[in-house]
Design brief:
heterodimer, A: alpha/beta, Peroxisomal Thiolase, Chain A, domain 1, 2 domains, 18% strand, B: alpha+beta, 3 domains, nine-stranded mixed β-sheet, five-stranded antiparallel β-sheet, 11 helices, globular
């Protein structure tokens, strides 16, 4: 009988680079920035680390190639330390955390580091570069873009719950307003400007019904977390954070092609959540979870992920979250008070690790700006998702005080 | 007797109007012409016409496919074979492309008749399709129209082809060299007086003589002309009454034909072809496709769009949007890429697309999955989005999830759509399109479109 990961692994240090269009930094700089902060936070040296997991979707897109773990050893001058590069699209960061945690839990290592990193802004164009016709498949879905595919979920959600276009857009706009509100309160965030609902509603369309402010930007950045066996954590610091549960689900991938797939709830997200809740012993999400960092690459992604993580009844987002402002830091269920992917930024492979960073800092009472510090947070949920509706790989990790 | 067993036509949805042309070039251009969408070419339009033609016909009876066009998408690589796959025809058939002459379709018709008469084939599917680019700012700009026609040629046909007459001529009037995008031509008066009128007259009168027919015996005459004036002059020279002259859309003539009618069909280019056709029985309907396609149209709202459709200017290329493809992958996946085959699970009954290794509903192994054809299924729109930033020739890119009748969700791009009119629940159908060009390869696949 498997025992699960609960309370076996502790995080003793986290680091995060400044996110943004980092014309000044390559992927090596970003990895160093995050790793050095994590080591300082843990009170260790880079050479103490026994193994490293790197989560990155493409590393540095400028090269056009897929990097190996060497990009880490080159950045940090580790001399032969094992580095495993993992990839699960936008969920690569959490995959690194998972790999590192299991490395410790297996007893193979006593001190490991997970890094998520992505350098997107050396390509010469604005988007992610996934939009080239036939890049992934010669003909099938040859023209799918992330906004185009997520927007189908928004259309379906509006249709299913009878929301007029303006009504639905307003619910989504409130989410983006909240993300930007917290981006301002985060010195490391990419987008640091407040926006109003009207601004969001009047912004140019990207993929109907989603507009400019419904979409996260294209960001450079890296984040890192250092882990040890929970039994050894006290040696490093008092306020270490334990991993309570990990769930990961690779959806069957044929969602958009199934007649019973309605786009408005995401089964991979639900499955990952169930696994993580079960492992962490979460019975009542509302009572037990104090903050959520979830994968809001689009406003509709935040809405549906909130419902699919069972934080909200399906179709009741407006009543339970928008109207009650539940997702603010002083609300009933704070969501993405870091600014989220939307405002903190979304360097593909870094986001999962960046969520770890935010949750640890919140639980430790060390949010960079006290004005967004959540009171007495003990348990946090991190949700990281790669792909697009109908074709998700999804991870959920629960972190908490020992 | 041999003749036309069934027929179908296709006219693309877009129209270029004289008003739009005048806005750019001035002058007094009037009327409108059909313009193939950015994702259409002669090959895809041919597929659409043939799909109309083959409605209710057992596709296994087609033994040959002849494709005639002066604008085949490949210089080397047959179009007929791609069309045959998109139509889900048998593999053991004869396919051939007829090209280079404006007369290639009517010449292919003679060869199709001969093939049937010889007994070597049962039925020939003949497709004529063209997407010629008129020189911008010329009198041809609204004369050339894009479209396709398909005729199923066989025995015991209700539309009987009684006979034909053909001439060949080295006369040069309009031409394109290998790398020419636009046609070149000699002075129109020379072309009319020395080429078009005498060549057509000669063939038509020779044909009528051979069949002991007079001009008055013709119920409807359908013949080619390079423009409306040429068409009028030809009718005058032949001594045709206005009631006998069919506007130059042969299929429309068939749509309106009555039993007992005798029709004349004549075509010009490098000589002339002329046919006498008798409507002997009930004309096999094609759902009035010509009328339907003429009526359902979308006006191009600016000339820039037309320039992009036909690639008449150079545009910015970003490294982000360098398209890719893979011929080996398409070959592996040809059953669903070209033939639009899906799977029907023998265990749970669910229909699914594309072809699967296991049933996506009950996980039954592919041994239990039966291939079914989906291209003719109608559907309704389940959800969609409108991507303003996608690198498509005719933005925005509409992504759509369509539920097909009899089960099956079809996820694809939506084409031939008024963006403002798209609504969840609207009726949809599938269409074969050239979805993008990459590495110098035309990539064909199925899209959905609002039912037309």
């Amino acid at each position: 009988m498997s025992e699960g990961i609960r309370d076996k692994v502790a995080i003793i240090g986290v680091g995060c680079s400044r996110f943004g269009e980092r014309w000044d930094a390559g992927i090596e700089d970003l990895i160093k920035e995050a790793s050095v902060e994590a080591c300082e936070d843990a009170g260790i040296e880079i050479r103490d680390i026994q193994a490293i997991w790197l989560g990155t979707a493409q590393g540095s897109q400028q090269t056009g190639g897929v990097p190996t773990g060497i990009v880490v050893s080159q950045s940090l001058q580790t001399q032969g330390t094992p580095v495993t590069r993992v990839e699960n699209a936008c969920a690569s960061g959490q995959e690194a955390v998972r790999g590192a945690a299991y490395g410790v839990a297996s007893g193979a290592y006593d001190l490991v580091m997970a890094i998520g990193a992505e350098k997107l802004k050396d390509t010469g164009y604005g988007g992610l570069g996934g939009g080239a016709p036939g890049k992934w498949e010669p003909v099938y879905g040859a023209f799918g873009s992330a906004p185009g595919r997520y927007a189908m979920a928004a259309t379906a959600y509006f249709a299913k719950y009878g929301l007029a276009f303006e009504e639905g857009k307003r619910i989504l706009a409130e989410i983006s307003v909240k993300s930007h509100y917290y981006g301002v309160k985060n010195p490391k965030a990419h987008l640091r400007r407040e926006v109003t609902v009207e601004e969001v509603l009047n912004a140019p369309l990207i993929a109907w019904p989603l507009g400019l402010f419904d979409c996260c930007g294209v960001t450079d950045g890296a984040a890192a977390a250092i882990m040890v066996p929970a039994s050894m954590a006290k040696k490093y610091r008092k306020d270490y954070i334990n991993i309570k549960g990990i769930g990961i689900s690779a959806g069957a991938g044929w969602g958009k092609e199934r007649e019973d797939y309605d786009f408005t709830y995401w089964d991979a997200t639900q499955m990952a959540a169930r696994q993580a809740y079960s492992e962490a012993g979460i019975k009542d999400v509302h009572k037990q979870i104090d903050l959520v960092e979830l994968h809001d690459c689009f406003s509709i992604a935040e809405l549906i992920a909130t419902e699919s993580l069972f934080l909200c009844e399906a179709g009741k987002y407006k009543q339970e979250f928008t109207d009650r402002r539940a997702y603010y830091h002083d609300g009933e269920m704070p969501v993405n008070v870091s600014g989220g992917l939307k405002s903190f930024g979304h360097p593909i492979g870094a986001s999962g690790c960046r969520e770890t960073y935010e949750i640890c800092k919140q639980i430790q009472g060390k949010a960079q700006e006290p004005s967004r510090q959540i009171k007495d947070a003990m348990i946090g949920l991190s949700h990281n998702q790669g792909g697009h509706p109908g074709r998700f790989v999804c991870g959920v990790i629960i972190y908490g005080m020992p | 007797m041999e003749g036309i067993v069934s027929y179908g036509a296709y006219i693309p949805i877009y129209r270029l109007s004289g008003e739009i042309v005048r806005q750019v070039w001035g002058g007094g251009t009037r009327g409108e012409r059909a313009v193939a969408n950015a994702d259409e070419d002669s090959l895809t339009m041919g597929v659409e016409a043939a799909r109309v033609c083959l409605q209710g016909i057992d596709k296994c009876t087609v033994d040959a496919l002849y494709f005639a066009s002066t604008t085949a998408p490949y210089k080397e690589k047959q179009s007929a074979s791609i069309i045959a796959a998109a139509l889900d025809l048998r593999e053991d058939i004869v396919t051939a492309d007829f090209s280079d002459s404006l007369r290639s379709a009517t010449t292919a018709l003679r060869l199709a008749l001969d093939s049937v008469k010889s007994g070597s084939v049962n039925r020939v599917l003949l497709i004529g399709s063209d997407c010629r680019i008129p020189p911008p700012n010329s009198d041809l700009e609204l004369v050339f129209g894009d479209g396709a026609v398909a005729l199923l040629i066989g025995r015991d046909a209700s539309i009987q082809i009684e006979g034909s007459f053909h001439t060949s001529s080295e006369f040069v009037d309009i031409w394109r060299l290998e790398y020419d995008k636009l046609p070149k031509r000699w002075e129109d008066r020379f072309v009319a007086e020395q080429g078009y009128l005498p060549h057509m007259q000669k063939a038509i009168f020779a044909l009528l003589r051979a069949h002991n027919l007079a001009v008055k015996d013709i119920a409807k005459a359908c013949f080619y002309a390079h423009d409306a004036r040429g068409h009028r002059n030809m009718a005058r020279v032949l001594g045709l009454d206005i009631t006998q002259v069919q506007e130059p859309l042969f299929d429309k003539a068939l749509e309106e034909a009555k039993i007992g009618d005798r029709m004349l069909l004549a075509n010009y280019g490098d000589g002339a072809d002329a046919y006498v056709i008798r409507v002997a029985g009930e004309v096999r309907g094609n759902g009035g496709s010509v009328r339907r396609y003429l009526e359902s149209k979308m006006m191009l709202d600016n000339y820039g769009k037309y320039i992009k459709f036909r690639n008449l200017m150079e545009f910015e290329q970003t490294p982000e949007h360098t398209p890719r493809t893979s011929l080996s992958q398409i070959w592996r996946e040809r059953k669903w890429v070209y033939r639009c085959h899906g799977h029907k699970c023998q265990k749970c009954g669910k229909v699914q697309f594309p072809l699967q290794k296991y049933c996506m509903y009950c996980q039954a192994d592919e041994k239990l999955l039966e291939e079914v054809s989906l291209s003719d299924k109608k559907g309704t729109l389940f959800t969609f989005s409108i991507d303003e930033r996608a690198p498509v020739i005719d933005p925005p890119n509409v992504l759509a999830a369509v539920n097909l009748e009899g089960g099956c969700r079809f996820f694809s791009q939506m084409t031939d759509r008024h963006v403002k009119n798209i609504k969840v629940g609207m009726p949809m159908e599938l269409t074969f399109r050239r979805i993008h060009d990459a590495l110098g390869i035309h990539n064909y696949f199925w899209k959905c479109k609002p039912a037309r």
